């Protein structure tokens, strides 16, 4: 993994989130991925489970909620790459309704481990609400 490959993966991550396309989401992750929305969560394990969680379609209680199209945007960039481990940071902005003013901004840090094919094997997200 290098900075360019990491940035391409992060761009695909944002595109998958914007589309909520199961194939795009699934293509990001290894079969045996461990995914955490928060560092203290038990991981969601397996590509199928991660896709279901992103789509808000699992019963685990840790599923993401689907954001309404046009109410969110994000940019992330790698800040450190060491072999197959990437640390990335960025921000995510939310609007109450499409085209409305931004009402929340989160600063994010991702800790990501990739497999030999450039698919995510481990993902942990850290985020904090930016003060207004």
From TrEMBL:
Residues 11-121 form the SnoaL-like domain. The keyword Cell membrane does not apply. SUPFAM superfamilies: NTF2-like. This is Ketosteroid isomerase-like protein. GO terms for molecular function: isomerase activity. Keywords: Isomerase. Pfam families: SnoaL_2.
């Amino acid at each position: 993994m290098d900075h360019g490959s990491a940035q391409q993966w992060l761009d695909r991550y944002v595109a998958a989130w914007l589309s909520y396309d199961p194939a795009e989401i699934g293509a990001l992750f290894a079969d045996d991925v461990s995914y955490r929305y928060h560092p203290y969560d038990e991981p969601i394990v397996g590509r199928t489970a991660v896709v279901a969680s992103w789509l808000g379609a699992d019963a685990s209680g840790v599923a993401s909620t689907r954001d309404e199209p046009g109410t969110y945007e994000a940019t992330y960039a790698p800040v450190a790459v060491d072999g197959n481990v990437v640390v990335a940071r960025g921000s995510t902005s939310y609007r109450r309704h499409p085209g409305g003013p931004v009402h929340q901004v989160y600063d994010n840090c991702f800790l990501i481990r990739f497999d030999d094919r450039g698919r995510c094997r481990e993902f942990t997200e850290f985020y904090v609400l930016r003060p207004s």
